[in-house]
Each structure stands twice: as C-alpha cells, then as structure tokens.
Amino acid sequence: RKEVEQDPGPFNVPEGATVAFNCTYSNSASQSFFWYRQDCRKEPKLLMSVYSSGNEDGRFTAQLNRASQYISLLIRDSKLSDSATYLCVVNRPGTYKYIFGTGTRLKVLA
Amino acid sequence: EAGVTQFPSHSVIEKGQTVTLRCDPISGHDNLYWYRRVMGKEIKFLLHFVKESKQDESGMPNNRFLAERTGGTYSTLKVQPAELEDSGVYFCASSLGLAGEKVYFGPGTRLTVT
After folding, report:
1. What is the pLDDT of residues A50-108, one digit of tens each?
2. Which of A32, A49, A97 sits opposite B45 (nearest CB)?
3. How far does the CA of residue A13 sit from the closest CA of chain B (Å)?
C-alpha cells in the first residue's frame, strides 16, 4: 500500500463548479500535510497547508480527518486557471522527508 | 526574493555519460532537498542536506548518484554513469529550519538519457 494515495483523475468540471479531492495516508503518526499545485512542466507550488481544524483560503478549503487518515481539498467556483495537477503531500514523521501522492489532474472547462 | 534555481533546465545525454545538476536554494535556507519524478510515477525523495551535511540520503537510488553541498550554499547532484532509468525530472527544494514547515521547489532539471 502506498503511503499517500490519490485518485489520479482526470476530473473534468465546468467553470463555476465545485470540486473536491481526497487523499489518504497510511502513517497515523503523520503530523504535517499539504496540498501543492503543479502546472504542466513546472515545479510544485505550495497551495496550502492542512491543519487539524481545517482551513480556508478564498475559494479553497482544506480539511484533515485524522480518524480516517484522509485530507481533502475543496475548490469552489472553479476557474479555468485552476486547471492543474493537485499533489497531496505528507511529511513522514520524525524526518524532513515529504511523501507525495501521484497527483490528481483537474481540468476546468469553459 | 529569488526562489530556488536549478541548472540546466534540460539535459540530454547518452547512456554511460556523466551529468551534473546544480541547485541554488533560497538564500538563508539551511535545508536543501533533492527529489525526482520518473515518468508516470510520483515525486520521490532522494536526499536532504542541512547546511553542508547529508542528513538523510535514504532515497538515493544507488552509488551512481553523488550529491554535494560544499560550503552549505549551492548543491550539485552528479550521475555517473547515467542509465536509461535515470531519466526524469530532478527537483531541488529548500526550507528554513523546522521539519514540516514550508518547502519551496525549484523548476526542476529534465534529464533524458538515451
């Protein structure tokens, strides 16, 4: 079983739609969680950290469910510019190592 | 503030040749990481420097890979001799000090071994 698992998609949604991605992680001791965004042939860029209490940044909401060991990312009012691959990243406990999911591809259609 | 920079952006070499990738982290970042994405796979950790010291090199594939960070500033990753399976995108990243804090990635070096 992979340490971090994501549905690779693609998710094709119309502009203005709400879309949600989930990611599961296997190490219950994990403490740090992130969503990164990666555009085609570019570097991953931090979208948001994920906190236990959940956090929101504009149209983006991230949540953590420790009991079920998953994190989620909700994007409201999708824009064409949201089209990208969204990477779920978990820090391996006791290390500085990031464990990446394979990414979920999102395509927002006009 | 300048981000993480990497050189070259692309490299095409033949099997058996040597390639050296360079990374300049964000100024003041003690932590420097190398990651790699092989086609169709997830991004995977290679190694971690704190200043000039290797903290964790558990992700290095084999002894054909050598990373250095002399003086604790920029880092190089040498592949010698390169094999076909080394093709992929090599990302460098850096962060300030604490585990779990924000890590900033460079644009990557796309390596193709033919």
Report:
1. 988 889 999 999 999 999 999 999 999 999 999 999 999 999 888 889 999 999 999 99
2. A97
3. 23
Distance, CA of B54 to CA of B66 (rounded, Å)? 11
| Dist. CA B26–CA B94, nearest whole Å | 7
Reported as a single tens digit per residue, the pLDDT across A10-64 is 999 999 999 999 999 999 999 899 999 999 989 999 999 998 888 999 999 999 9
Q: Is B7 on the interface with A (CB under 8 A)?
A: no
Residues 6+ away with beta carbon under 8 Å from A5: A23, A24, A25, A26, A101, A102
Cis peptide before B81 (omega within 30 of 0): yes
User: Would you call B70 helix, strand, or coil by DSSP?
Assistant: helix
